[in-house]
Predict the 3D structure of the following.
Amino acid sequence: MIIAVDGPTASGKGTISKKLAAHFGLAHLDTGLLYRAVGRQTWLNGGDPDHPDDALRAVSFPGELLDDPILRDEATGGLASRASVHPAVRDALFERQRAFAMQSGGAVLDGRDIGTVIAPDADVKLFITASVAARARRRFAEMQGKGMPITLAEIAADLERRDARDTGRKDAPLLAAPDAVTIDTSEMDIDTAFAAALDVVTTATK
Ligand code: C5P
């Protein structure tokens, strides 16, 4: 079984995907982490993520980079969003994601274009979304927990900037596949959101 989970940052898609993978015993890939590694490696190389050649060179990042906690930073998210605009970068990461999706035991992948580009043949497609205000509040609570000096308004502005870039790009924009089921988690806690997602998967695969 392949489960495709797409949606914007801080919508809850990552947590839902992890929980679905654990529930069904499937492998899980957070594809955002690959783009984050490319963004980070571009920066480490002294390159510019807006420049296609610089971003493409960073696709050969070392595997250990995926374990670096710095990839989770907002700054790295911004670099990833810029590097992921380039079609050559997306093409270079395609096979790795496709192979993961096709593994024999089945998989859950989360990202922006899983249901549309990476696994259009997925058994179930979820589009997890939430209002900017709800997503900003979640990020803010997370960052306060880490003692990071950033305001709610700054986080909301950053989310809007990233949404606009992810939604507006020509190649593989953030978009619900026509056959995806949308879950708006704005008013849900994570247990409720997971229950809703599980219900969709169970019904679709009955
Ligand atoms: O999901 P996450 O916030 O970790 O993703 C970081 C950035 O990587 C996103 O803003 C998006 O631009 C890009 N991305 C993408 N396609 C994916 C996953 C992430 O373009 N499948």
